[in-house]
């Protein structure tokens, strides 16, 4: 098992990676970083944890959209991942705020 040093939204992480999985992990890191950067750059969300949750939800939604009905999700190449738009981000923030209530708000 190898360890790779990666950067997400400017913060460095050391991740374990199975032998031969470096390229796939790097592609995943690039997709997550691209999504987190798009959310941060939209300007409405400041907390790193909230940005990470929104990015995870966006990427999971994109993956689910690509899955055949009733079948497993199939990941698209990282280059196919598109950053979320501001309206989508705003909607997700409102949904998270409603679901988390006052105790769970990060902003």
Q: Can you describe this structure in just a few lines?
A:
The chain is 55% helix and 13% strand. It is an alpha+beta fold.
Layout: helices, strands, pairs:
Elements: E1 2-8, E2 11-17, H1 22-42, H2 48-66, H3 86-104
Antiparallel strand pairs: 1-2
Shape: globular
Q: How much helicity do the residues have? A: 55-70%
Total number of beta strands: 2
Summing up helix and strand content along with how strands pair, one would put the structural category as alpha+beta
pLDDT < 50 stretches: 74-82
Arithmetic mean pLDDT? 78
Q: Compute the CA-based radius of gyration.
A: 15 Å
Number of helices: 3
Kindly report how far apart the N and C termini lie: 38 Å
- Give a quick account of the main beta sheet: strands, pairing sense, barrel closure: 2 strands, antiparallel
Oligomer: single chain
The topology string of helices and strands comes to EEHHH
**Number of separate domains:** 1
Strand order of the largest sheet: 1-2
| Percentage of β-strand residues | 5-15%
Which tags fit this structure?
107 residues; alpha+beta; 55% helix
Give an overview of the whole structure.
By secondary structure, the chain is α+β, with helices and mostly antiparallel strands. Helix content is 55%, strand content 13%. α1 crosses α2.
